[in-house]
Amino acid sequence: MRGPFVITVDGPAASGKGTIASRLAREYDLPMLDSGLLYRAVGVLATRAGLDLDDGEAVARLARGLKAEHLGDPEFRTRGAGEAASRVAVHTPVRLALRDVQLAFARRPGGAVLDGRDQGTVICPEAPAKLYVTASPEVRAERRWKQLKGQGEDVPYAEVLADIVRRDERDGGRADSPMRPAPDAVLLDTSELSIDGAFDAARRIVEAARARWGRSQEDAS
Ligand code: CDP
Ligand code: CDP
């Protein structure tokens, strides 16, 4: 377990992983990577460019040109962006185009928090602390419905639930880097938890992992 202290936070849409990841980043003073934002940006920019989202090579060419300064667009937080992201994320060339930037982040000497679907399985399988955050589809749809409404997107709940179910199937069913817990990830079901409750549970899991990691660093030195 040598190497930087990296925390991976994976899980399905609207499980609360982003909230947990950003609070953990603050708690441990670590930089955070929202890897979903990379896929959202590619999905939206490819749609704007008129590309066929099923054409993995064309979308990958665009993904190779993605720059950090492209990432601040509020449209990336919309419902359509989530859908476009999961469509482009099935293509191996697109995933490869976004891999280096994620690996560089995972290897920062000071450690990091990585949020996504495959951070603990593919991007940083050696991470000392891994969480897999879930909640029931109904709870996640309710949370996403409220979140979208707060952003000015008033979509019927049933449609948000259908989006969530479709995205779970696509993200979990794809051949390359499917959404699933790493064998050594700790599962955290937030269905019945408030944001503070979920964060407390996450912090306890990370504290235990950090103690193990600290001991392994001492043994190695
Ligand atoms: O990153 P992910 O899509 O998994 O979810 P998120 O953006 O962290 O959370 C989705 C929404 O649910 C946000 O508006 C959170 O404030 C809310 N949330 C909640 O109500 N209760 C929780 N335990 C966690 C998140
Ligand atoms: O916030 P939410 O969970 O809805 O989505 P996100 O984390 O922003 O991810 C958007 C989409 O990008 C997901 O549905 C996945 O298809 C894809 N994604 C991925 O394939 N791998 C990642 N590491 C992160 C996101």
From TrEMBL:
<feature type="binding site">
    <location>
        <begin position="11"/>
        <end position="19"/>
    </location>
    <ligand>
        <name>ATP</name>
    </ligand>
</feature>
<dbReference type="Pfam" id="PF02224">
    <property type="entry name" value="Cytidylate_kin"/>
</dbReference>
<dbReference type="InterPro" id="IPR027417">
    <property type="entry name" value="P-loop_NTPase"/>
</dbReference>
<comment type="similarity">
    <text>Belongs to the cytidylate kinase family. Type 1 subfamily.</text>
</comment>
<dbReference type="InterPro" id="IPR003136">
    <property type="entry name" value="Cytidylate_kin"/>
</dbReference>
<keyword id="KW-0547">Nucleotide-binding</keyword>
<dbReference type="GO" id="GO:0036431">
    <property type="term" value="F:dCMP kinase activity"/>
</dbReference>
<dbReference type="InterPro" id="IPR011994">
    <property type="entry name" value="Cytidylate_kinase_dom"/>
</dbReference>
<keyword id="KW-0067">ATP-binding</keyword>
<dbReference type="GO" id="GO:0005737">
    <property type="term" value="C:cytoplasm"/>
</dbReference>
<keyword id="KW-0418">Kinase</keyword>
<keyword id="KW-0808">Transferase</keyword>
<protein>
    <recommendedName>
        <fullName>Cytidylate kinase</fullName>
        <ecNumber>2.7.4.25</ecNumber>
    </recommendedName>
</protein>
<feature type="domain" description="Cytidylate kinase">
    <location>
        <begin position="7"/>
        <end position="200"/>
    </location>
</feature>
<dbReference type="GO" id="GO:0005524">
    <property type="term" value="F:ATP binding"/>
</dbReference>
<dbReference type="GO" id="GO:0036430">
    <property type="term" value="F:CMP kinase activity"/>
</dbReference>
<keyword id="KW-0963">Cytoplasm</keyword>
<dbReference type="GO" id="GO:0006220">
    <property type="term" value="P:pyrimidine nucleotide metabolic process"/>
</dbReference>
